[in-house]
Design brief:
alpha/beta, Spore Coat Polysaccharide Biosynthesis Protein SpsA, Chain A, 2 domains, 7-stranded mixed beta sheet, 11 helices, 9 strands
């Protein structure tokens, strides 16, 4: 039985992107373990206790209990989609979900849906990057933030909508946060679906901080570099931003280019930071155009 309207939470599911890195394929209908990504997300929101579910995107499923909305004009990005769906929300809290998360059940198991605090809670991935589209927001706070976003949120970064809210974060493994942006992502999701223990076995290997420091020291000794010359945190941030904004294979290429650019500029710490800043900005613009 659904909770009375005005209490509990409703859900907004985002399913209206262009899927540019998938060649324009209908991403919400791609299947993992025999179920379309959108259907998985809708079912997960319903099982988690959502009073009502509003999908922002073209009608793709025969789901009589789902409401459908579309930002105008279409393909305005996630902020525009959220703002278009908000008038349909009546509950005190709003669960916002992208439809392309194969590990949605695991994600919602980690997200505190029963005892939210402040303006909401979101997941972060293993690198600490905020997953604002796997989050629970106080509806009133989300509406207030939406009112200040120009152009009804068209092509606006998600940070412009939720960046000023008081949010808590929950760290989650890659299986709960890795979305399907590329065919490589889809292949990975299909490979690991339903296989115990696969949630921490991913294509991009991770290291504990102490092991990474040891490797950085080994590089420094091999090539006679000072500790300040090995910008581990800076390069990791660059790789993370490019992987999320462009594609995972673009991350090592971008780090290599950053080194080339910094070297041509003299190789100083400032030249490294400037090269990383420029590539990060390019990745952000790239993501906004997709």
């Amino acid at each position: 039985m659904n909770a009375p309207r005005g209490t509990g939470f409703d859900a907004i599911v985002l399913a209206g992107g262009r899927a540019s890195r998938l060649g324009g394929a209908a991403k919400p209908l791609l299947e993992v373990d025999g179920t379309a990504l959108l259907a998985r997300t809708v079912a997960a929101a319903r099982n988690a206790g959502a009073n009502r579910i509003v999908v922002a995107g073209e009608r793709m499923l025969d789901e009589p209990l789902v409401e459908w909305v579309r930002e105008d004009p279409p393909f305005g990005g996630p902020v525009a989609a959220i703002i278009a769906a908000l008038p349909r929300i009546e509950a005190e809290w709003t669960l916002v979900l992208a439809c392309d998360l194969p590990g949605i059940d695991q994600a919602l198991a980690l997200l505190p849906l029963r005892d939210p605090r402040e303006d909401g809670t979101h997941l972060t991935d293993a690198s600490g990057r905020s997953q604002w589209l796997t989050a629970l927001y106080r509806t009133a706070a989300l509406r207030e933030a939406a009112a200040s976003v120009p152009a009804s949120g068209r092509n606006a970064p998600v940070r412009s909508l939720v960046g000023a809210l008081r949010l808590s974060a929950v760290r989650a493994p890659e299986a709960a946060t890795r979305d399907v942006d590329t065919w490589e992502d889809l292949e990975w999701a299909r490979r690991v679906s339903g296989e115990p223990g696969e949630d921490i076995i991913v294509s991009d290997r991770t290291l504990p901080p102490e092991a990474l420091d040891e490797w950085a020291n080994a590089l420094g000794e091999r090539f006679e570099l000072a500790n300040d010359d090995v910008h581990v945190a800076l390069i990791l941030d660059l790789a993370r931003d490019v992987a999320n904004g462009v594609a995972r294979p673009a991350a090592p290429v971008s780090a290599f280019v950053a080194g080339l650019v910094a070297g041509r500029a003299g190789g100083s710490p400032e030249s490294v930071r400037e090269a990383v800043r420029a590539i990060t900005e390019l990745a952000e613009k790239w993501a906004e155009k997709r």
